[in-house]
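Input.
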Amino acid sequence: LHRYRGSVIGFSGDAITCWLDGDNGLRAIASALEMQRRMQEFKSIELPSGQTISLAMKAAVACGPIRRFLIGDPQIQLIDVLAGRTLDHLAEAEHLAGRGEVILHPSAF
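Output.
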């Protein structure tokens, strides 16, 4: 993500929300595809018990206007918050994605 000038905005469970400022979608798509490529290294992981597991991820990309706020007290903690219809588009696309996929909302075409 950082190679594509992006940053992680937040975590929710096992999901991350990323931000690529000034992107028209191309850097976000390239970053998501590179993440998927790198995940191939974790297709088969043998645990000390002998059990084999497979790790995978899914990614969704949406583009458009969004509001970004920095909230909190700088002496305690600041939190980056995003709001807007583009986040709804991102959530819609994410729900359609499966393991190993990169799904684009039409806004990212």
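The helical segments are 26-39, 85-96.
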